[in-house]
Amino acid sequence: MALTEVTDANFKAETAKGVVLVDCWAEWCGPCRMVAPVLDELSQEMADVKITKLNVDFNQKTAQELGIQSIPTLLLYKDGVLVDKAIGALPKPQIKKFIENHK
Prior knowledge:
The chain has 103 residues and is α/β, with parallel strands linked by helices. The chain contains 4 helices and 5 strands, in the order E-H-E-H-E-H-E-E-H.
């Protein structure tokens, strides 16, 4: 499954159903660029999980509502409810375990 861009306009709709991982990132963030290919791989391996990206520079309203202070921040939603949060550039096995803990 390809990564979906989420925005201020569609955030609630995109996180409403199933297990959804939101990667809060910005173009200028080096650690965010390190995590991006890992999330691409996981989106192919974990078809039952929607993996999305929220650019905090272009979607400041949502970033502020979520209290994002550091990036990358990974938010895990289950049926529209925030169930977990991880901050920093994590290795692939750790991100996978982070997701699987809530499936």
